[in-house]
C-alpha cells in the first residue's frame, strides 16, 4: 500500500514539475547581451578620427558599397545581393570614428545590419462593363509582385569584422601604418552571403531520327 502511494506521489510531483517547466516564460533576447569588451565591433589606431573614417569609407567603396552619408566622422553605406529570383539581401554598414584620450589615436566602431526580403505576390481583380443589350461584368485578374522585408539582424560574425578592419588597414595613411607596424597585405574581399547556385537548365530531349525517303 505504501509503495503504491509513493509511486503515485512521485508521478504527481513529476507532472507538476513538467507543467511548471512548460509554463515558464522563455528567456528574452536582450538577456544574451553581456556588454563585454570583446572588441568585435571596434578597433583603435594611432590616427585621427577623420583619417580613420576616410580609410573606412574607401574600404567600403572598394567593395561596391554605396555611401549614403556625408558626415566625415559617421559613414553609412549599403550593398544589395540577389541570391535567387525570390530572395534579396541588403547589408547596411555604419561606421563611427571617435578621438581617444591618447595623442593622435582614435577608435572606429562598426556594425552591419542584414535585411532579408522575399517576393510577395498580390492578386488584384477588377470588373469590365460592356454595354451590349445591358451591362455585363467580366472579371479581370492581375498579379503585382513586390519585395517585402521578412527579417532584419545585426551581423555579429567576428570573422566578418576582422576582414573589414583588415581591409581598412590597407587604406590608412603610410605614417599610421608605420607607427602601428602594419604590414601591407593583399586587399581581401569582405565576403557576401552565400549565393544559391543557379538551377541547371533541363536537358533537351533528343529529336527522333528522320528516315530518308525510299
UniProtKB/TrEMBL annotation:
Signal sequence annotation: 1-19
Keyword check for Zinc-finger: no
Lipoprotein recorded as keyword: yes
InterPro entries given in the database record: DUF2242 (IPR018718)
Alphabetical keyword list: Lipoprotein, Signal
Pfam families per the UniProt record, alphabetical: DUF2242
Recorded superkingdom: Bacteria
Protein name: Putative lipoprotein
Organism, scientific name: Pseudomonas savastanoi pv. glycinea str. race 4
Amino acid at each position: 500500500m505504501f509503495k503504491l502511494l509513493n509511486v503515485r506521489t512521485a508521478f504527481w510531483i513529476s507532472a507538476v514539475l513538467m507543467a511548471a517547466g512548460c509554463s515558464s516564460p522563455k528567456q528574452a533576447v536582450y538577456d544574451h547581451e553581456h556588454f563585454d569588451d570583446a572588441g568585435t565591433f571596434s578597433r583603435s589606431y594611432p590616427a585621427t578620427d577623420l583619417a580613420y573614417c576616410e580609410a573606412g569609407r574607401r574600404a567600403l567603396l572598394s567593395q561596391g558599397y554605396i555611401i549614403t552619408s556625408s558626415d566625415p566622422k559617421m559613414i553609412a553605406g549599403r550593398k544589395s545581393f540577389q541570391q535567387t529570383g525570390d530572395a534579396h539581401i541588403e547589408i547596411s554598414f555604419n561606421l563611427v570614428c571617435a578621438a581617444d584620450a591618447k595623442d593622435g589615436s582614435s577608435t572606429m566602431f562598426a556594425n552591419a545590419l542584414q535585411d532579408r526580403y522575399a517576393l510577395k505576390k498580390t492578386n488584384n481583380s477588377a470588373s469590365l462593363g460592356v454595354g451590349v443589350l445591358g451591362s455585363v461584368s467580366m472579371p479581370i485578374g492581375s498579379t503585382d509582385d513586390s519585395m517585402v522585408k521578412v527579417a532584419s539582424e545585426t551581423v555579429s560574425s567576428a570573422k566578418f569584422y576582422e576582414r573589414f578592419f583588415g581591409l581598412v588597414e590597407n587604406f590608412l595613411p603610410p605614417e599610421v601604418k608605420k607607427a602601428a607596424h602594419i604590414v601591407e597585405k593583399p586587399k581581401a574581399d569582405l565576403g557576401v552571403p552565400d549565393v544559391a547556385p543557379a538551377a541547371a537548365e533541363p536537358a533537351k530531349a533528343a529529336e527522333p531520327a528522320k528516315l530518308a525517303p525510299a
